[in-house]
Amino acid sequence: MSSLAVFLSLALGAFAIPHTSHSLAKRSAQTSAPSGCVTVRGSGTKSGEYATVSSALAGSGYTLDTSSYADNTVTITHRLDAVDTGSDEKSSTGDFRSDNIAVYNINFVNSYGKGSQAVAVTAIGNQQAFYRCGFYGYQDTLYAKTGDQYYAKCYIEGAADYIFGDASAWFSRCTLASIGGGSITAQNRASTSETTSYVIDHSTVCRFSQLQGISRTFLSGIWQITAASGYDLTGDHCNLTDIVNSKGWTTMAAGAVPTYEEFNNTGAGSDTSKREYETNAASAVTMSQLWVTSGRGWIDSLY
Predict the structure, then answer these.
(1) Catalytic, out of 140, 148, 166, 201
(2) CA-based angle 183:224:284, to the nearest 5?
(3) For the chain, does the N or the C end have fewer beta carbons within 10 angstroms?
């Protein structure tokens, strides 16, 4: 809980006053929170501060219609990149590092834009779940780094490798919206002994609704030679629109032997006849195959 509290206190402050400079010098020189920040102080709370993370979040508003990310009320925004901060993780608007986390109806935005990696959310931990959340960025939007993770009915937006890391992550009924050419996922399985993978299930791959004519995007472009991603489903179809490059998959690693699978997808981008690096899938991947030890009992039963 302590790591979650630290993240939220920082992120809420970033929401109140987004950074307009990429330099960390001013930040490191500050001895108190900038005017207008939302501050959580566990003890010795001062006027205008919150004693708990829950009360601070409640002060930011709440979503009346929780059935979709489209009506999310709370948006947490930051503007930092990996070059100035020193790492992808440090550029994150939201940084989740605990097990057994469930997040509902919150938007996370890294507004840095083109030019460098700039993460909206870093997720490190087992049994982390995000429901009807929005993740907005350009390059490296969602860092699903390690652990068993679940994303349901979420909106994820970016252009280059905007879902990346080495988690065992399942994306159910999500919208993956590209705002530029590149690759959607960049799974980072480091060795053949690992069983981590990304599974995109019952989801839609499309271009950002206000953009037309942007470059085709690849479903995945891996870091390591053994990465695994699957655009799979159980009993229904993923909708791959015409934004998907006919080759489907690409790699940034020489001599790559990735596991790329598709099963029963539909849409203008679902033709697999010209796919490269693809492994034939005889059936859809199941959650029990992805999460061998944890199963799916930790997922909200409504999802």
Answers:
(1) 140
(2) 65
(3) N
pLDDT values of the chain reduced to their tens digit, one per residue, 303 residues? 333 333 333 333 333 333 344 444 545 555 666 666 778 887 877 777 888 877 887 777 888 889 999 999 999 999 999 999 999 999 999 999 999 999 999 999 999 999 999 999 999 999 999 999 999 999 999 999 999 999 999 999 999 899 999 999 999 999 999 998 889 998 887 777 788 889 999 999 998 876 666 678 999 876 665 666 665 433 346 999 999 999 998 876 667 777 888 999 999 999 999 998 888 888 888 999 999 988 899 999 999
Record the tokens describing residue 225, joined without a space.
Answer: 């030679």
- pTM of the predicted protein model: 0.82
Has 140 been annotated as catalytic?
yes
Annotated catalytic residue within 161, 166, 201, 232 = 161
Tell which residue, 179, 199, 204, 221, has the closest CA to residue 265: 204
Residue 253 tokens read as 């690693």
Could you tell me the domains of the chain?
62-290 (2.160.20.10)
SS3 content of the chain, % helix, strand, coil (to 5): 15, 30, 55
Measured distance CA(251)–CA(5) in Å, rounded: 37
